[in-house]
Structures are given as C-alpha cells and as structure tokens.
Design brief:
7 helices; single chain; about 240 residues; 7-stranded parallel sheet; alpha/beta
Length: about 240
C-alpha cells in the first residue's frame, strides 16, 4: 500500500522547485494533487508531467478570490482535502534604507497573508486527522542582511503553526513547518557563481540541498509516518542554522 493512497493534497507554488518535487512524490505515493501557480504555461507543463492524478489551478495566493476559486474546484472534483502544503513564497534582497512600502507589502501579502488564507480557506474541506505543512526558512531564526522583511515573514508563519497546533488539536489536524536552507532550485539562477560558492561554503554539509530532499520531508509530514509529530519546525538545511 502506498503512503498517500486515495489522499487529496493541495500544493501552492507547485509548478517548480520544491513544490513540484513534492507533487511528484505525492502522486507517486497515490495522492491526487491540486497544484496552484501564477503562470499558466508553467502550470500546464507541470500538470502534463504529473499526469492524470494532478489538477492545475492558475492563481496567486495573495489574492483571496483566487484561493476561493482553488477550493471551489477542489470541492467540486473531490469534495475534501487531506493535506495542505502551503509552499508558495517570495523574497528579495533590499537594503534597509532602500526598503519601500511596496517591497514590504509584496513579501507579506504572499508569505504571510497568502499562507494564512491558504490554510484558513482549506479548513471547511480539510478532513479531521489531516496534515498542514508550511514552507518556512532558516531565515525564521537567522538574521540575514538586506533580507529582513523575508526573515520576519517566515518567523510569522512559524508562529501561525504553533497556534494552529493548539486550535486544531480537537480535530486531530497536525500542523508543521519545513524550513529549508539553500536548495538548488531555479530561484538561485540570477545569483553570481561567486555568491553561490560563498553560500555553499557556509553549509556544514558542503553542498546545497535538492528539491527532492525537501519533498521527502514533506511526504514524511503528510503521511502517517509522522502521526505523533505536530507543531515542529523541521530544518532541512545541511546544518546551516544548527551550528
């Protein structure tokens, strides 16, 4: 028997990187996945690669109407949700004296507001005993120059998970955070090679992680393998935030 047989999962930011790798893992373990992404072309390509056990919904988690549409589609097609992986997020480096209100809003609208309402709007469909997984970051516990707004946004979603753990305990819904370190995904492509080399040099394991290494952890938290795990922040960072 597969670990997610007959489960229904929602994954935001599911068209590339960690979200897509997780969707592949979930499908391989028997789940039907609904993936949400902003760009239709990438969404169509992701769904084509995932096959008949995937449904794509174009949308932006910062827009609550898009989230409403996502869950209306889920309700119509499956009628329930077992796993929510609130993975979509954004981040940009901006010096503190150059930071604008627009910069702040862009990050908090997606990372904080979008994550909150991704979970809140799932709750009427989320089965008792379900699993909520949120993508955090080592930035939740580390100060990173010119990245303060992003760091604060990830600390905020980690705080949400602590509260949801208590608020949803009577429904036996587990809520956990995966906090990646530096992961080899397309988001790193704009960085100079020297900058990447400096980042890698700071990782105790001496390399970046892969998107599939995040997906394996997401599968653990989604499945009954983690049946007594809730409220945690699980760092998948090669030791970066641990020493």
């Amino acid at each position: 028997m597969k670990k997610l047989d007959n489960k229904v999962a929602v994954i935001t930011g599911g068209t590339s990187g960690m979200g897509l790798a997780t969707a592949k893992r979930f499908v391989a373990e028997g789940a039907h996945v609904f993936i949400m992404g902003r760009r239709q072309r990438e969404l169509d390509a992701a769904v084509a690669g995932l096959g008949k056990q995937a449904t794509g919904v174009q949308g932006d988690i910062a827009k609550l109407a898009d989230l409403d549409r996502l869950y209306e589609i889920v309700k119509k097609q499956k009628g329930r949700v077992d796993i929510v992986f609130a993975n979509a997020g954004v981040g940009e480096f901006v010096a503190p004296d150059a930071l604008t209100e627009a910069d702040f809003n862009r990050t908090f609208d997606v990372n904080v507001k979008g994550t909150l309402f991704t979970v809140q709007k799932a709750l009427p469909l989320l089965n008792d005993g379900g699993s909520i997984i949120v993508t955090g970051s080592i930035a939740s516990v580390k100060g990173i120059p010119a990245f303060g707004v992003y760091c604060a946004s990830k600390a905020a979603v980690r705080s949400f998970v602590r509260t949801w753990t208590l608020e949803l305990k009577d429904r036996k819904i587990r809520a956990n955070v995966i906090s990646p370190g530096t992961i080899d995904t397309p988001i790193l492509e704009p960085l100079p090679k020297q900058a990447i080399a400096q980042i890698v040099a700071s990782i105790p394991m001496g390399r970046m992680g892969s998107a599939d290494e995040i997906a394996k952890v997401a599968l653990f938290l989604a499945s009954d393998d983690s049946s007594f795990v809730t409220g945690i922040e699980l760092f998948v960072d090669g030791g970066t935030a641990q020493v």
